[in-house]
Specification:
The protein starts with a helix and ends in a 16-residue tail after the last helix. It has 412 residues and is an all-alpha fold. It has one domain: Growth Hormone, Chain: A (Up-down Bundle). The longest helix has 31 residues, at 49-79. It has helices at 4-11, 14-43, 49-79, 82-100, 106-120, 123-134, 140-148, 151-164, 167-184, 192-199, 216-227, 230-240, 243-249, 258-282, 287-305, 312-325, 329-339, 345-358, 360-371, 376-396. α15 (287-305) runs antiparallel to α20 (376-396). It is built from 20 helices and no strands.
Amino acid sequence: MKNSKSALREILQPAVIVGALGYFVDVYDLILFAIVRGASLKDLGLSGDQILERGIFLFNFQMAGMLLGGIAFGILGDRIGRVAILFGSILLYSVANIANGFVHSVESYAVWRFIAGFGLAGELGGGITLVSEILSKEARGYGTMIVATVDVFGAVIGGLVARKVGWRTAYFIGGGLGLVLLILRMSVAESGMFKQLRAKSTQVARGNFLSLFTSWKRFAKYLRCILIGVPLWFVIGILVTFSPEISKALQIQGAIDAVHAVAFAYLGITFGGLASGFFSQQLRSRKKIVFAFIIFTLVAMAAYFFSAGFSAATFYLVILFLGFGVGYWAVFVTIAAEQFGTNIRATVATTVPNFVRGAVVPLTLAFNFLKLRIGIVHGAALIGVGCILIALWALRGLDETHGKDLDYIEPI
């Protein structure tokens, strides 16, 4: 049994630290857009309902970019290496974010949000895959927990930057942060498991995305990995992003600010991420913890939708609890990485979180459709309940992966 000092030394490897910083940049960008959405669109000449409608349009473009980028970087991660996709991902994101600061039309804004999303797509999945493969099975849960719980800092810094500088400058800063991270990544070594796999390149198919759809058993497992994460981005993409509009319909006493809503949500996500990661290690179960957090999210959603007439402070507290509930993000991505063999692990771990993020596209379209027919509150509530039920069904059919040996090849 390792002592605490040697265990900590194993966990805090360059790959873990730099992977965490990569997710910091990832969340900074996603949250930055949520925060500057209104100000940037007003600056581009929009007003009234156009800000919400065009905001959804841009958000969907960004999420579509992440979905396609997840596929591309996942395949490359299994074919050319985990570290290589982390370099390509952050470089593309940095260039796109700097370009975001120069846009003067909604159309060009949409193009660069798509490219930025495409670039960011490789960050979380690539980082989790690398960390999962270089750490021992006893420590990898803690490593992935660290990677996926620095998001609060990205959210907080994004909020502070958006408050202190103009939205264009905030995008320039995001691009600059990406370029700094690019330099830090030079200290990260490739996964030993991947190196061994690459030596067998003539014998083993790597990064075959279509293979996930050629076997019903493999496809069902892949689909379930995606579906257990859908409540996470329903909460962030709809309940938090559009909290200013929803709170008005709920007649919350006091204005709800998107910056504060995002900060409270990500503070909750950080505590939830630490708690879910820690207890999944202590209880030696990923599934039990994800189940408990999904149920907690359902309770927090109920509080959100029944908060009519509450004060702004109480509503922010509810958002904090919502964030805690969906803080199982780290465990969710780890489950996806642990379900599949080394030859397709990066493809799965990179595409799964981005398909979840991409699910915001149909979710927001459904939200836009329902709010016009049954109201903004009832529309969001109906979608939320559906997301929870789907996630519980998906979780039930997945295998427990805590402590699983990951040094194996997926038969394709």
